[in-house]
Amino acid sequence: MLKFLRGLPKVELHAHLNGSLNTDSIRELAEKVYGAQTADFSTLCEQFVKFEKGAKLDECFEKFGFVHKLTATKQGLEYATELVIRDFAKDHVIYVELRTTPKANEHMSRRAYLQTVLDAIKSARDLYEIRVKLLPSINRGEPIEVAEEIVALAIEFASTEPDIIVGIDFSGNPNQGKFKDFMPALSEAKKHDLKLALHCAEVDNPLEIREMIKFGMSRCGHGTYLTESGYEHLKEENIPIECCLTSNIKSGTVANIGVHHLKQLMEADAPKVLCTDDSGVFDTTLTDEFFLATETFGLTRSQCIALTMEAVEHAFATREEKLLMKMQIYSYTRRQPL
Ligand SMILES: CNc1ncnc2c1ncn2[C@@H]1O[C@H](COP(=O)(O)O)[C@@H](O)[C@H]1O
Ligand SMILES: [Zn+2]
C-alpha cells in the first residue's frame, strides 16, 4: 500500500509555505544561504519537530519563528520556496496550492515578499514538473490594516498572474483576533473573484463558527469543532473540509486519530480532502497522511484514488488543468492492480 500511495499522483490543497520545510531542507537552506551550521543549529532542528504528548495548539505557533528567521531575507525566501516545491514533487504531488503570509521586515516589504515567492514558483514549477498556485494568507493575529494591504496586493498580483494567485487563506492562531473584523477585507477579495480558504472551527468557538459558515467559503480548513448542522451545511453547499490528520493530532485539536472526523465525513459521503498543513513542523508527507488514513480507517486503494480525484475537483484550478490531472491519476491507477 505504501508503495502504491507514494507513486500515486497526489494533489495538495492545504500547505503553509513556512510550515512545509522539513528538517533536511531547513539544513540545506541554512547551509546554502547562510553558511555552514553549528551543533547548536542541529539541536534547534531536532527540537523543531519534537512534540511533547499533550502539546497545545499555541505551542505549534511558536515553532514557526525558527523558520521565519531563515526566510526573512529575499534569498532565504526564494530558496525555501524552491525547496518546498521540490519536496512536494519528490512525494509525487502533481499540484500544490501553497499559502503564505506576506511579511514586512528590514529586508523586504510585503509586496517584495509576494513578488519573491511568485518568481520562485515560476522557476521551480518548470524544474520539478508540478503545478503550483499561491494563496496569500491573512494572519488573524495581525492588525486589520495588514489584512487590507494583503488583499489589495493579492488582487493586483492576480490581475497579472491569474494562473498562480487564485485565492486568499485566512489563518493564524485561532485564539487570536476576531473573524468578524476581517470580513470586509475578505469580502473585497471575494468581489474580485479570489477564492476563500478559511481556517474554520480549528478550536471550539461556536459564535465564530456560525459567523464563518454564514459568510461563506470555498473550502474549510480543519473543521474540527463543527457541529452536526455545520457538517450538514457544508455538505449541502459542496464545501470540502481540508483534513490534516497529523497536524490535528500533534497540535491537540483532535484527541486521537481513531476519532478524527475524516471517518465521519467518509461515512456521510461529505466533501473532504486530505492535506498536510505543515509537513515540516509536523514531520509528515502527503503520502504519510494517506497511509495513516488507510491504517486507521481501513481505506482501500480505490478509496484513496477517489480522495485524490476529490482533491482535483476542489482545487482552485482551471477545467483544463483538472482534466489533465485526472488523466494523469487515471493513467497511474490503470497500471496498478486494485
Ligand atoms: C496548525 N494549524 C494552523 N492553524 C492556523 N494557522 C496556521 C496553522 N499552521 C500554520 N499556520 C499559519 O501559517 C504560518 C506559517 O506559514 P507562512 O509563514 O504563512 O508561510 C503560521 O505562522 C500561521 O500563521
Ligand atoms: Zn493550516
Please explain how this structure is put together.
- The chain has 338 residues and is α/β, with parallel strands linked by helices.
- It has a single domain, classed as Metal-dependent hydrolases (TIM Barrel).
- It is 54% helix and 13% strand.
- The protein contains 15 helices and eight strands.
- An eight-stranded parallel β-sheet has the order 1-2-3-4-5-6-7-8.
- The chain binds N6-methyladenosine-5'-monophosphate and zinc ion.
- Zinc ion binds next to β1.
- Belongs to the metallo-dependent hydrolases superfamily. Adenosine and AMP deaminases family.
- This is Adenosine deaminase domain-containing protein.
Please tell me the overall pLDDT.
95
Q: Note the run of SSEs as H and E.
A: HEHHHHEHEHEHEHEHEHHEHHH
Bound molecules: N6-methyladenosine-5'-monophosphate, zinc ion
CATH architecture: Alpha-Beta Barrel
Q: What is the name of the CATH class? A: Alpha Beta
Content of β-strand: 5-15%
Domain Adenosine deaminase: 9-330
Family: Belongs to the metallo-dependent hydrolases superfamily. Adenosine and AMP deaminases family.
Keywords: Hydrolase, Metal-binding, Nucleotide metabolism, Zinc
InterPro entries: A_deaminase_dom, Ado/ade_deaminase, Metal_Hydrolase
